[in-house]
């Protein structure tokens, strides 16, 4: 089969090459998927270098080809989406076939396109781990008990942030306050937040959050951007016993002695020192299994609307340009996906 291997050229531009490699063999707990559409994520350009090119994609949508001996829940021909194990250096979603653990694979309903499904896996598991494991918020299926929980999400128009708002709505958190910029209409359109604060040229974000909280105690904040100073206005409003979680390591000092806990999606598969501990990963590996089943249900019932997409021209050959645009922060509130069958040279 063919896969796309990417690396940086001497000028830091992402370049790619189609390479003939063997079809991967699923391990006992894995699913082998014929990839129809691959998604993309910022990490696909962040972890490559100029030396060894590799297939850095992890978001898969396609059809089950075969399953490992310990996988009772999938059969050849099933339509699925899946999150591949990150940074494996061999294999990945930029290919005709890819392997993923069954725990991070989920069925997709007939009426959901592979293009839309490819936007879900990595980002959804990130949000699941961040909100329900690291922030320990009540899961969407938990019975509502007492006052609704306020939540502030910084970066409501990043793929991670918008997905967090969707799960926050499913969980019934309120008030739901978010900070976003030029793409904020995607939040308003689906009523995914009670208050949207524009971060652009705004020195009063902390004050605006305070006003929106209306004297309610803030115990949970999620920074879905995590580039300084995003966490500052969150920490400034957080209760002394509150928790702040983000998606990039955050080194800057924060108000009131708060620390940002880094939530790492890879924790659902394995330990990635120093990002997570063995104990965290053990719990997160159980969590993703349960979360996959919940994802299947809300997709089947039409309770989860997928991210806006842009289909890259040229299949796998369009991915390097897509990754360059992600790197230049030119992609706004949209997921770039590629259809494998449109690749010239397969
Ligand atoms: N820890 C993990 O496991 C994990 C998992 C997934 C992603 N990540 C990381 O999370 C980050 C976001 O990834 P993503 O895929 O969600 O990104 P993305 O969808 O590519 O984010 C694009 C959006 O970023 C927003 N943005 C740009 N500057 C901003 C600012 N100063 N404040 C708030 N929002 C701003 C823009 O919103 P507007 O158009 O509204 O301005 C834009 O639409 C990346 O750094 C990624 O590497 C980490």
Automatic annotation (TrEMBL):
Lineage, opening ranks: Eukaryota, Fungi, Dikarya, Ascomycota, Pezizomycotina
Keyword Oxidoreductase: yes
Coiled-coil stretches: none
Protein name: Enoyl reductase (ER) domain-containing protein
MF terms (GO), sorted A to Z: oxidoreductase activity, acting on NAD(P)H
Pfam families according to UniProt: ADH_N
Assigned keywords, A-Z: Oxidoreductase
This protein's record includes keyword Oxidoreductase: yes
Highest taxon of the lineage: Eukaryota
Domain Enoyl reductase (ER) residue range list: 16-338
């Amino acid at each position: 089969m063919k896969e796309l291997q990417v690396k940086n050229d001497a000028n830091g531009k992402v370049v790619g090459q189609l390479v003939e490699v063997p079809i991967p063999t699923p391990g006992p707990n894995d699913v082998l998927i014929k990839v129809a559409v691959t998604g993309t994520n910022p990490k696909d350009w962040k972890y490559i270098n100029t030396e060894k090119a590799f297939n850095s994609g992890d978001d898969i949508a396609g059809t089950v080809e075969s399953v490992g001996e310990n996988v009772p829940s999938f059969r050849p021909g099933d339509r699925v989406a899946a999150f591949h194990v990150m940074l494996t250096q061999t294999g990945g979603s930029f290919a005709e076939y890819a392997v993923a653990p069954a725990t991070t694979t989920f069925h997709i309903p007939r009426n959901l396109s592979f293009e839309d499904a490819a936007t879900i896996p990595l980002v959804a598991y990130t949000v699941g781990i961040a909100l329900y494991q690291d922030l320990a918020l009540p899961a969407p299926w938990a019975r509502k008990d007492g006052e609704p929980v306020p939540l502030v999400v910084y970066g409501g128009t990043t793929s991670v942030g918008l997905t967090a708002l969707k799960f926050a709505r499913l969980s019934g958190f309120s008030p739901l306050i978010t900070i976003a910029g030029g793409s904020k209409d995607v939040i308003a359109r689906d009523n995914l937040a009670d208050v949207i604060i524009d971060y652009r040229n705004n020195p009063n974000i902390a004050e605006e959050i305070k006003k929106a909280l209306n004297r309610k105690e803030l115990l949970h904040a999620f920074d879905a951007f995590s580039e300084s100073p995003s966490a500052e206005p969150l920490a400034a409003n957080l209760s002394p016993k509150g928790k702040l979680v983000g998606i990039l390591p955050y080194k800057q000092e924060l108000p009131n002695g708060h620390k940002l806990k880094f939530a790492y999606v890879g924790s659902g598969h394995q330990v990635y020192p120093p990002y997570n501990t063995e104990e965290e990963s053990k719990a997160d590996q159980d969590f993703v299994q349960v979360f996959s089943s919940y994802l299947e249900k809300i997709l089947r019932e039409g309770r989860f609307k997928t991210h806006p997409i842009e289909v890259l021209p040229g299949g796998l050959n369009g991915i390097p340009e897509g990754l360059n645009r992600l790197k230049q922060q030119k992609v706004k509130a949209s997921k770039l996906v590629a259809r494998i069958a449109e690749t010239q040279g397969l």
